[in-house]
Structure formats: C-alpha cells, structure tokens
Write a structure and sequence with these properties.
Two copies of one chain form a homodimer.
Chain A lengths: L1 H10 L6 H13 L3 E2 H6 L8 H13 L3 E5 L5 E5 L13 E4 L5 E3 L15 E12 L1 H10 L4
Parallel strand pairs in A: 4-6
Antiparallel strand pairs in A: 1-3, 2-3, 4-5
Helix pairs in contact in A: 1-2, 2-4
Chain A binds a DNA duplex through helix 2 and helix 4.
DNA sequence: GACTATATGCAGGCGACTTGCAAGAAAGTC
DNA sequence: GACTTTCTTGCAAGTCGCCTGCATATAGTC
C-alpha cells in the first residue's frame, strides 16, 4: 500500500516525504473529494502544518496525482486520480450534497460536450451537480428538518 | 432603460435605490458575467462601498434578478438573468477564458443531464468550460507568448 | 411633509490562502 | 556509512475576500 504510494510519487518525480505519503494515502483511503479543512481534521493528517497541507495539495495537483474540484460553496475539494486514467484531470462530473457537503466523483460518466464561442479553445470542463444525497434527502423527508 | 430596471426591481419586491439601479444597469450593459472586482472598478459603480456592492449583489441574486457563477479561479461572477427566462438561475453552461478571465453565458445551450447516485435529489447544475477565447487564442498563436 | 422600514457606509474582524525565510529531511555520490 | 545538494517543512507575517454590527441616510407610504 505504502509502496504503491511511494511509486506513484517517484514516478511523478516527487520525493517521498511523510507529508505527501499521509496526504496521498488519506485521499486514497477516502476515495471522494474532500476539502482542505476535512483533510486537516483527519487523524492521519492531523498535526500537519496547514501551510504544508496547502503546499502538499498543490504539489500533488501539479504532479497530476490528484485533482481538485470546486463546489458551489467555494471550497476546493481534492481527490486522487483514478489509477487507470493517468493524466485525466478530474475529467468527470461531480455531485455535491448541499446537506452534508460531501462530494462524489461520477467517474463512470463522460463529461458532456458543449459548443463554445467561435475560435475559442477548450482546455477543460468543470461540471458540478448539486443537491441532496440519498442520506440527506431521506433525513429531510423523514424529519422535515433539512440541516 | 432606467424605467425597465425600476420595474424589474419593483416586481421583485425590492426598493429602487441608486446602488441597485447602477449595479443592475451595469450588469445589463455588460451582458456577461463579471466579478465583484470588475464591477467595483467599473466607472458606473466606482465609489460605491465594497460592502454595499456585496450586499447589493446578494440581494439581486436572492431576488432572482441576476445569477452568479463560479469560475475555476474561485471568483464569483454575476450576470443579469435572461429576461425571457425569468427564474432560471443561470441554468446554462458558461465559458471562462483563462487568459483574459472573461466569462460568457452559453445561453443557447441546455444544461446536460447527468446520472446522479441512487436516491439523490438534484437541485442545480454548475457547468463551466474553460480555455482561451478567440481573441486570447489568436494573440497567443500570433505572439507565441500566452499571458 | 412626516413616518417607518429598509438600505447604505464605516469600523472592525474572521477565515482562507500566500509569501519569505530558516531549519530539517530525502536522494544521490563517494 | 558519511557527506553534499536540493527539496520540503514549519513558522511568522501579511494579503485578500467576505461578513457582522451599528449608526445614519433614504425609499416608499400615508
């Protein structure tokens, strides 16, 4: 497990430091996009300097090991890159629950195409669907008190 | 022109104040999503207190007169609602130029559908396509020095 | 014109994020 | 295994975007 992370870091040309291993391992274990604050509060990352976490996330994004998506709440969320689609910068839609603020990668779906203005070059697409996840929808339907 | 803005404000249940008229008028004249900073620097809005501008934009968004979209640069951009589609909260894709940081509403295109996790309720979709607009693409192709 | 509810402007503050710099640690070399 | 180089981390400080509270000004109503 750790070896796989080390290999991923090495193949990206990065040094294997405890900070990167723990951040990458945590994101890998979580498997869904999480915010800097979520990570900072996670036991495996707790104690790490906030600035280091910012920089580590930035480094991993630049290296293509993780991607980041912005929710409609303005918070960036970070998620490991699917292993079998190296270099794909989060190229899939995401679902953000406005209740529990959790985000899911909809990795099984292609990013829809859009006609852009004449002459424009598309470099990427950012598609966030927001609403309530099953758990939050059920909770609000049951109690009548959406968070 | 001003009368149309006054009517729009009144029909939304808002008072017609100079701040709202100038913000709404400026957004209407610009016709494309602009940031708080862009607005703040605009001659028609210059001199207005930044906090007032924040609150005015928030009020207009709440009233459904304008909508806001977040670019991948984290900045919220505000744009008037298409008159013929009242109540549509920016329900169309947007194109963001990473060069000049300008955004365009792709109002002629429907927001694509996406399959969300079982049981989830969709409340909205946020689709931003980014890249280079025709002008920036031409400039970088010509000079070889993209901003 | 007077009154009331609302909007505006100012002061102050919080949180997210960045930068600069010095100490510490990982890789490579001998 | 020890040394050196280069990169990373942690701390301090600061910037930027945005919000809150409160006093004053103003729009709308009678």
């Amino acid at each position: 497990m750790i070896d796989a992370l080390r290999m991923a870091l090495r193949s990206a040309g990065l040094r294997c430091t405890p900070a990167r291993l723990s951040v990458l391992g945590t994101l890998d274990a979580l498997g869904q996009p999480v915010t800097h604050a979520d990570l900072s509060a996670h036991p495996d990352v707790a104690g790490m300097d906030d600035i280091t976490l910012y920089r580590t996330l930035g480094t991993l994004v630049d290296a293509g090991l993780i991607h980041r998506v912005q929710g409609i709440d303005g918070a960036w969320r970070y998620c490991v890159q699917p292993r079998d689609r190296a270099g794909c910068p989060g190229n899939h839609p995401h679902f953000l629950c406005t209740g529990c603020r959790r985000m899911e990668c909809l990795v099984d779906q292609a990013m829809p195409r859009v006609r852009v203005p004449e002459g424009a070059e598309v470099r990427g697409r950012h598609f966030v669907v927001y609403g309530r996840c099953a758990a939050c929808a059920a909770a609000s339907a049951g109690s009548g008190a959406p968070g």
